[in-house]
Every structure is written in C-alpha cells, then in structure tokens.
C-alpha cells in the first residue's frame, strides 16, 4: 500500500484471492482493544464489506499478510497513519475516533493522492492542507432497489439481503444500526461490524452513514432485555434484545446464519411448514365407459346387409395389418357370397394403402419418379388445413425410398381442388410416361369442435359395397376412438365444468379448477415404429394428444364465454392409453379435487436464541394464530428424481449447488452456480454480476423435451477447461431441471409408451404453464426459481433450452394438425435445432435486436460444417415439402446460415413474466433453443444433446467476448455500476 487512499482497494484492505481482477476478500486485522467501542467502526466495516464480492467474518482475527489496524490513544489530534504497510489510528477520545471512522467510510472513491496520513480537523478529513471529500448523506427513502424486510426470514434469503418482488442489478443498503449506550462493548461492536459488513457486501449501492441516521429505510436496534430475541417491530424495523453478556453471541450467530437454500437453517422453518401443509387430493368424481368394438359393429352391419352376392366389400378399421388380414380371411369365409373383401386402415389410410397395396406393385415395375395427386381438403368451416391429406401421407416418400430404393426427392405431391378421389398415385417410366397405380377414397365423419362453431372431419371406419367398381352403399362406423371421444366431450367435460364452475377469482388462470384429471383408455389399436426417422403409427398417441390439448381448448373457450379471456390453467390432464388387442374399448375417468384455500400469509415475527446465543426457535404469525417452530438446518436431498441430475450432483464438488425452492409436489430444485471461488465464507452473486457478465441457462422447463437436462450437465463436464478461462470474465448459472413434477409425470407416462411425445407432461403437476405465475405469490415453487435467479444474479443473457416433437404430431379430432391454439404448425420437425429470439417492445428494442443478430451470427458459425447443419438442411427440406411450400404462414421459416432463427411474434410471444420483457433496461438478450427431442433415446438423443451444447457454447462464447466497464459512482451514496443492457460484439473467428 503506497498511499492511505488505497485502503478501499486490493492494494490496501482488500484482496484478489483468485486473481481475476475482482476484490474477493478482506486482508485486514482490526486489533480492537477491549474497552474501546467506537460506534463509527460499524460504518468503517460496512465500507470494507461493500468493496468486496466475498467475505469471511474474521477481520478481527490475526491473519498472515493482513494489514494490521491498530488504535493508540494520543493527546494530540485524531489521525490515521500508514506505517510499514499497517494502519495506526491515533485518537484523543472515543467520540472523535468514531467520527473519524465514519468519515473514512464515506470517503469519495477515485482519490489518487499520495499520502501516508489523514487527520480529523473540525469534523472534516484532511491530507496535509487539502480537505478530502466525503459522500454526503442523501435522503432517497424506500425504492424498488431497497431490500425490504417484512418478515425476519427476509434478512438472509436466496437473493442475499432483504426481499423484493422485482429483480434489479441495483440493491441499496440504507441502514441505521443503533446500540443502547449501556451495551456498547468491544465484543458486541465486533459482531455488529461483521453483521453490517455482510449486509454491505450483498449490496451494490450504499448510503452513509449507517449509524445515527433515524431516516434510514431499515432500522436495526440492539437493546437490553431479559430474554434474548430478534424481533420484527414492523416492516424494516428490527430489534435484537437480550442481556449484555449474551447479546454478542446472539449477534455472532445471526451475522453468520446461512439461508436454507445454501444448506443453512435460516428461513427453513417457513419452507418446512409450507411443505408440511400439502395434503392428498380427494377424488372429486369417477366415470366409466365401455362399448362394442368397431370390428364387432362392422361385422354386425355386414350381417344386416342384404344381397351381398358378387359384391366387393371395402372395410376401414383401426387395426394393425395382421389383424386386418385375419379379418379378411375369416369374414370372407363367413360371407361366401361376396366376390372380394379388403380391410384398410382407418388411421392414416392413405399411408397404409400406399405401403400395403401400391409399394408391392412397384417392386415389379420400373418407375423413375412418382406423383401423388391429393385432393384439397373441402370440409366446410373445418379446422383441417387445405393440405390435410398430404399431412396424412407423412412420411410416405421416405417409406417408399426404404422399400424400393427410389429417392424420396423423386416422389412429389400435387394438390388439386377438383380431384375426384382423395388420392391418385402415378408412376412415370423411363420415357416419363405416367401410369395410374391406384386411387383411394377415404371415409370421414363430421363433428362440431369444442368452440361450438367450427367442425372437424376425422377419418371414419366404414363398410362400403361396390358393384362393378361403383360405390353403391357406404355405412360409416365411428371408430372406437371417436365414440369414446364423443362421450368424453359430450358427457365428461360438461360434468367436469359443472362440478368446478363455482370457482374463485384467479382459478383457471394462476391456479387450477381441479388438481388432475386422469383418463385411462383401453383399446385395440395399431402401435408400431416405422423405422423412418423417429416416425411411428400410433392412433392412441393421437388420441392422447387430442384428449390433452382439446381439454385445454374446452376450458379456454369456457373462459372466453364467461370472463372474456381463456382459462389456460384448468388442471392437470393425464391421459394413460393402454393397448388391449381384440377386446372391447373401455375407459375410466377420475377427477381429483383442488382445494382452493387462500394462501396463509405467515410472517416470522421473532427468533429466539439458546443460552449460547445460537438460533433456537422462530415464531410465525398470520394475524389469526401464532406458531413456534424449532430451527434446524435444511438437508439437501439424498436423491434427485432425474437420474442424470442425481449422477452429476453425486460426482461434482467444484461448483456451488443451491436450492431456491421446492416444487409443488415437494421436490427440492437445485441450481448450479459456476463462478471463480475465492474460498471465502460468504459471497454476493449480485456483486459478482456487476464485475462480470452473467449468463443464466435453463433446462427441463417442459419435461417431455428430454434432451436439455442431459445436455446442460454434459455441457458442464465437457466445457470444464473452457470454463476455467471463461469464469474469469463470466458467471454461469444453470437450472438443470426446472420442472421436476412434470418429469415425475413423464416417467409414469413413458413406462407404457416410451417413445410418444407425451405433451401432457410438459407443464407442472396440475397442468399449469408455471412461467405465467412467475413474480406472483404462488404455491408453485417451480415458478419461483426463474425470478429468484434474476433477483440473485441479475443476468445479462438468458438461454432457455427447449424441444419440439421428434415425430409426426397429429390430432384427428382437432383438424389433424397440431392444436388450433398454436398459430403455426408443429405437425412435423422443422430442424434438428432452431432458435427463437425474444425481443422487448420499447426504447431498448434496437439494442436487443442488434444483440440477437450477433447471437444468431455466432450460433451459425458454431454450427457450420457440423452434423447439426446437415440435419437442419434435411429437416428443412421435409418441412418445405410437407408444409412450407403450400402454407408458408402456417409453416414459417426464418433462415440464418445453417439454422432457423425465429423473431416473428407468432413464434416468440412476449408476456410480463419474461425477463427481457420485464427488465429490458438491463437484460441484454433472451434466447430459446428447440431441438427435436420429444421423446427420444440413444443416438437421436445424443444428437439433440450435442445440438444444445453447441448452441449454448456459441452464446456463452458471444457473451465472453463482450466488454464491460465498471465504475464507482459517488454522486448519491456509493454505487458500483456498469452500462446495461450489455452490447454484444460480433467478432469474427
């Protein structure tokens, strides 16, 4: 230390232990004699804590290489001397020493004078003859940047100090600490200094003085009392009272208390009580359904029909090929008078017809290309797209390619308004002459959709009689799926609505009407993998998706009718589909109740201490009753519900793992914090985010999007060497499984059908898209994690890793497309991975647009010449062929080199609980990745994992290249700040 003005730097009383250029500890030994208790030392230690990002409460203990601070009585002036790299205070009396310490604490930053002494003269600081400026007290009052303590549990919490609903990179400490004169001992003063140093370290802005300021936002009084207790007199007014000999130990334990999220005990009594109140959900009602099978109904219809002599019978049934062939044989014997009988599939009939009847013809014919003429959909006022019959063919070109080796690119579709048949297939020979290979007419039924206005036209089972090729009779037989679905729509949903219609405000929006609706369906249906990409034939998966999404639509329309806005959170909808070959269809519906009790507003009013000063008991009050709860430590869970997360947690020790909250079903949710540790006892994430850029990566938000969680954990393992360098400039915060309750449901659903998309598991336990209740007072702890991370870290960039279907998404009872609630189609994968950029709408939008373009360019360069680019090109061609070329608005593409990257509002909706929408003034970018991972395994999963890793690495690298400049502002209080939102730099290479 060359100058006394260096005391608040790493050349003075601070240190940079990990050598990253940021102060991360205190290098001081304050040798305070017994009997000396200058109250201004509290201000001095607050400044000491404010200037560092990490802290151990040991600066009253002798340490090697620490700057020694001594106090020596002197009859001359009160002054501070720098001698042999140590500091010596000479003082006339304790009040003058106290005033001197307070002024030193408030000394303005940026003074570059070379001096070895400072003197107190007439209440002012002087270096020689020059007066040294100090910070003036400013009367700001309570603001959004002021931490609030309206419950004692807010003192030390996940966001560091105090509680605020809103996140901010600024946290103001405006505190007054008062100690009764009779209690002002050296022992108590030391603990008070530790207490305020920790509070100041957790702040990015501080108002001096911290003593003798009754106008401060937070008042903390230490008074004498018979019982040792920490009390909340009113909001932001704290009192620690007790006997003189016990108070230092009580404050010692209070200053060192760790929040339960960091495996401490502080505040855990409230969390534990909340978790204990979760009760089992009672059964609201139960219904059962059964019916004859469509096979039996078709057989009975044939028996009814007269004059079948020499008739050609065409049947459509929802059975696999082997059963349909068996039916052909048995019924031909049962009805010997008929001339021929063919049984075709009533699920994706065009695809089955080509695979089963046209492809065998092609084996004996030489064709160089194929045209499939398709009738444009004509259903009046229907939800189906004009290309509905092209969609029902997917992925026929790849099936033909696998069967006969004809390149899929040589198989084309032609959409025609006036085609007399649903499909006509033509083969072209070497001279490009066409030959008709066959045609098909698909039977359809008609249903009113749940909005009561539009219709859907699902494929129906049917009995058809043809004579001399001409159709003479057609008898539609509703499929088992349709008859159950009609029962569900006409009986179950109205009964459900009637049961829950006496609801409270907020239900259907931020809380559900019912806990969950469990649907068990048993049917004889086809279930097989096509071995083309991840495609499969599964009519029950389609029914699963219809039951889930159409139930959501039903309640959305009820909300529009009743409140003018949709009910988007009715409750959990859990369809379980069971294959029961050759038996009657059946179903059971069970609805479990949601007990919509008002949240109890518990406030911790007092904390009591044991005789040794340790925290013993917390007293909570909700204005009706009072509870006394014992205080004990939170034990991190021994196991995690996700095996990848479990394995990672058990095997790592380098990074900090914290637990901000529990999910609704009681799963502790871990967050991984990667920063350059200095080995100190406490650290301030918010302060670290002032000096370094911070990125927040979220995975597993929608649980059926299975690749993001293993990707983010493999990212940590594989990028470890890179992170060593990056962490000098960047903090990385990771939420590896945002939605454990959804994942728990996914594990149940995948036991029977491991490769379905299982969208029913994308939301939380009660079917809520919990991102919409972030920043609300909610029982859904999973919704609190994102806001808590924003409060704790104030990240510059947010990346949310998601997924899209890995195979065809069909809903026959919603127009055969992905749900009508989506403005664009997701009926087939559009990419291996694509990006979505969220943008703000106000004054900061140009900067956000520029940042997004920088990210897009960087991601493109990372993907270039990798398998990801190759697969993206493959899927883009598929997306164009089956959708974009016909309906570009429904199947949009926003192309960047090697990747789609969407900015359009239909794909990237913004709402108030999204970070960049809520905080455009300090968040630089928010990006989503979407890999085609619903639900995949093996090599396909590995490919999605790799795509996420490359995507995330590209954005982290982009952030690492950005420059920041931190400055200390002393105009109003003392503040560390940097320009936000950060400007990302587009650096080539």
Automatic annotation (TrEMBL):
One of its GO terms (biological process) is proteolysis. Residues 687-761 form the Peptidase M14 domain. CDD domains: M14-like. GO terms for molecular function: metallocarboxypeptidase activity; zinc ion binding. InterPro entries: Peptidase_M14 (IPR000834). It holds the Pfam family Peptidase_M14. This is Peptidase M14 domain-containing protein. It comes from Cytobacillus dafuensis (Bacillus dafuensis).
């Amino acid at each position: 230390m060359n100058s006394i003005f260096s005391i608040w730097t790493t050349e003075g009383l601070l240190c940079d232990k990990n050598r990253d250029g940021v102060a991360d500890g205190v290098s001081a030994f304050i040798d305070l004699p017994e009997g000396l208790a200058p109250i201004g030392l509290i201000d001095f230690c607050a400044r000491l804590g404010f200037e560092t990002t990490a802290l151990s409460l040991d600066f009253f203990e002798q340490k090697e290489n620490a700057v020694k601070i001594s106090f020596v009585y002197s009859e001359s002036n009160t002054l501070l001397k720098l001698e042999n790299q140590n500091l010596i205070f000479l003082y006339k009396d304790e009040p003058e020493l106290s005033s001197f310490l307070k002024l030193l604490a408030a000394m303005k930053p940026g003074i570059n004078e070379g001096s070895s002494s400072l003197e107190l003269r007439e209440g002012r600081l002087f270096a020689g003859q020059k007066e040294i400026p100090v910070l003036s007290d400013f009367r700001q009052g309570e603001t959004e940047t002021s931490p609030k303590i309206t419950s004692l549990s807010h003192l030390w919490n996940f966001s560091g100090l105090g509680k605020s609903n809103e996140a901010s990179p600024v946290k103001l400490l405006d505190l007054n600490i008062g100690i009764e004169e009779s209690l002002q001992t050296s022992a108590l003063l030391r603990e008070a200094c530790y207490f305020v140093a920790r509070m100041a370290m957790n702040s990015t802005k501080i108002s001096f003085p911290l003593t003798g300021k009754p106008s401060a936002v937070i008042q903390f009084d230490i008074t004498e009392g018979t019982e040792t207790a920490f009390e909340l007199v009113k909001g932001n007014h704290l009192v620690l009272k007790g006997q003189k000999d016990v108070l230092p130990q009580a404050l010692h334990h209070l200053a060192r208390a760790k929040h339960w999220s960091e495996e401490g005990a502080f505040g855990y009594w409230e969390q534990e009580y909340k978790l204990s109140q979760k009760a089992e959900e009672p059964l609201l009602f139960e219904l059962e359904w059964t019916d004859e099978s469509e096979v039996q109904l078709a057989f009975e219809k044939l028996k009814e029909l007269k004059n079948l002599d020499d008739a050609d019978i065409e049947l459509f049934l929802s059975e696999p090929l082997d059963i349909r062939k068996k039916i052909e044989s048995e019924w031909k014997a049962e009805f010997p008078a008929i001339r021929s009988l063919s049984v075709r599939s009533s699920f994706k009939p065009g695809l089955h017809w080509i695979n089963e009847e046209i492809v065998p013809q092609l084996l004996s014919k030489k064709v160089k290309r194929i045209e499939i003429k398709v009738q444009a959909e004509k259903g009046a006022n229907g939800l189906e797209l004009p290309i509905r019959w092209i969609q029902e063919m997917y992925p026929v070109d790849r099936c033909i390619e696998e069967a006969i080796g004809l390149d899929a690119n040589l198989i084309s579709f032609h959409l025609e308004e006036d085609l007399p048949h649903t499909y006509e297939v033509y083969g072209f020979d070497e001279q490009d002459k066409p030959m008709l290979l066959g045609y098909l007419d698909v039977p359809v039924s008609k249903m009113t959709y749940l909005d009561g206005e539009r219709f859907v036209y699902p494929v129906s089972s049917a009995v058809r009689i043809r004579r001399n090729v001409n159709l003479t009779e057609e008898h539609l037989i509703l499929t088992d799926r349709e008859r159950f679905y009609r029962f569900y729509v006409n009986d179950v949903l109205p009964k459900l609505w009637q049961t829950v219609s006496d609801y409270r405000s907020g239900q259907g929006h931020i809380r559900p009407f019912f806990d969950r609706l469990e649907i068990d369906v048993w049917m004889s249906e086809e279930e097989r993998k096509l071995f083309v990409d991840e495609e499969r034939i599964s009519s029950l998966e389609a029914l699963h998706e219809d039951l889930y999404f159409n139930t959501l639509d039903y309640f959305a329309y009820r909300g529009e009718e009743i409140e003018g806005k949709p009910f988007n959170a009715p409750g959990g909808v859990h369809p379980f589909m069971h294959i029961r070959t050759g038996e009657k269809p059946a179903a059971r519906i069970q609805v479990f109740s949601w007990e919509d009790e008002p949240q109890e507003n518990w406030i911790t009013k007092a904390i009591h201490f044991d005789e040794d000063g340790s925290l013993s008991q917390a007293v909570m009050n909700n204005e009706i009753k009072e509870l006394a709860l014992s205080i004990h430590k939170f034990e991190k869970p021994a196991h995690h519900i996700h095996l990848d997360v479990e394995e990672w947690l058990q095997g790592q020790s380098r990074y900090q793992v914290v637990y901000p909250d529990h999910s609704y079903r009681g799963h502790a949710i871990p967050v991984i914090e990667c920063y350059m540790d200095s080995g100190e006892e406490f650290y301030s994430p918010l302060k670290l985010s002032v000096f370094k850029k911070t990125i927040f990566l979220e995975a597993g938000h929608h649980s059926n999007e299975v690749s993001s969680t293993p990707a983010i954990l493999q990212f940590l393992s594989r990028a470890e060497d890179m992170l060593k360098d990056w962490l000098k400039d960047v903090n990385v915060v990771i939420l590896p499984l945002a939605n454990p309750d959804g994942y728990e449901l996914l594990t149940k659903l995948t036991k029977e059908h491991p490769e379905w998309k299982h969208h029913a598991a994308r939301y939380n336990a009660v079917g809520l898209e919990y991102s919409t209740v972030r920043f609300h007072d909610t029982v859904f702890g999973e919704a609190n994690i994102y806001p808590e991370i924003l409060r704790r870290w104030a990240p510059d960039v947010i990346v949310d890793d998601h997924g899209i279907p890995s195979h065809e998404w069909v809903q026959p009872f919603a127009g055969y497309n992905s749900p009508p609630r989506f403005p664009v189609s997701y009926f087939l994968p559009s990419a291996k991975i694509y990006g979505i950029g969220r943008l703000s709408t106000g004054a900061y939008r140009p900067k956000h647009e520029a940042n997004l373009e920088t990210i897009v360019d960087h991601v493109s360069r990372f993907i270039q010449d990798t398998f990801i680019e190759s697969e993206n090109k493959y899927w883009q061609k598929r997306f164009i062929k089956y959708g974009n070329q016909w309906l570009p608005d429904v199947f949009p593409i926003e192309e960047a080199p090697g990747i789609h990257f969407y900015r359009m509002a239909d794909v990237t909706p913004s709402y108030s609980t999204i970070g960049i929408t809520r905080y455009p003034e300090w968040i630089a970018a928010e990006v989503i990745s979407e890999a085609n991972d619903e639900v995949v395994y093996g090599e396909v999963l590995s490919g999605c994992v790799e795509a996420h890793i490359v995507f995330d690495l590209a954005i982290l690298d982009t952030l690492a290249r950005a420059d920041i400049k931190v400055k200390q502002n002393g105009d109003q209080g003392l503040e560390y700040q940097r320009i936000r939102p950060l400007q990302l730099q587009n650096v080539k290479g």
